[in-house]
């Protein structure tokens, strides 16, 4: 019985590892070729699986799309969101510093994360309302997360109140997107951490109350 449990656990771990590999490969392919430009054959070749093995883990390509989006959300929450929440006793400006720096680190370690979201948004906008809605929700949640930080900073007198918090938040999210996507899109070798430091010096100074 004990051996059977160990074997089942090993199979579960191997299955999760395979799913993770498929999602990683799909993230890269969707970023470079788009969702509709990526074939199942592209995916099976990228991970070295048969179509049958791939369909064992995901029922179809749509299922893989949702897995990619969920992966992006979970990576951001773990790498950035949790770090900010753990610094809840810090000033809002300090939390903003964490936001920019951890976001830059996360994108540096997960090169295609920003690009895949940006490309999928453009691809799905007028083609697939269901997928487009899912992607928009990610950005809306991101903006809401930042907006809560900004509003808290305004209430504590740490951030200027003469600028609308939502406008500040939208600009911050747009700037973070630029940190993630611009070096990839333009093929310019720019260190994202250096970009974040530069923006912090300019942007956050203007927000201080």
What does this structure look like?
This protein is mostly helical and 209 residues long. It has helices at 2-33, 40-47, 51-57, 61-86, 92-109, 113-124, 129-155, 165-186, 192-207. It has one domain (60-207): Orthogonal Bundle (Tetracycline Repressor, domain 2). It contains nine helices and no strands. Helix 1 (2-33) packs across helix 4 and helix 1 crosses helix 6. The protein is elongated, with a radius of gyration of 20 Å.
Quick recap of the structure?
By secondary structure, the protein is an all-alpha fold. It has helices spanning 2-33, 40-47, 51-57, 61-86, 92-109, 113-124, 129-155, 165-186, 192-207.
Write the layout of secondary structure elements.
Blueprint: H1 2-33, H2 40-47, H3 51-57, H4 61-86, H5 92-109, H6 113-124, H7 129-155, H8 165-186, H9 192-207
């Amino acid at each position: 019985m004990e051996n059977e449990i160990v074997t089942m656990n090993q199979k579960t771990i191997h299955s999760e590892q395979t799913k993770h590999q498929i999602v990683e490969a799909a993230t890269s392919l969707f970023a470079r070729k788009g969702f509709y430009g990526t074939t199942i054959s592209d995916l099976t070749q990228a991970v070295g699986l048969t179509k049958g093995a791939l369909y064992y883990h995901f029922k179809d390509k749509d299922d893989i799309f949702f897995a990619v989006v969920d992966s992006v959300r979970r990576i951001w929450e773990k790498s950035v969101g949790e770090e900010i929440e753990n610094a809840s006793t810090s000033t809002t400006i300090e939390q903003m510093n964490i936001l920019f720096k951890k976001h830059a680190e996360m994108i540096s370690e997960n090169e295609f994360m920003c690009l895949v979201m940006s490309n999928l948004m453009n691809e799905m906008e007028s083609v697939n309302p269901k997928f487009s809605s899912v992607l928009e929700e990610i950005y809306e949640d991101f903006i809401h997360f930042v907006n809560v930080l900004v509003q808290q900073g305004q209430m504590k007198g740490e951030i200027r109140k003469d600028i609308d918090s939502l406008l500040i938040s939208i600009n911050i999210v747009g700037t973070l997107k630029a940190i993630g996507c611009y070096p990839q899109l333009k093929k310019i070798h720019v260190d994202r951490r250096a970009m974040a430091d530069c923006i912090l010096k300019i942007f956050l100074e203007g927000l201080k109350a």
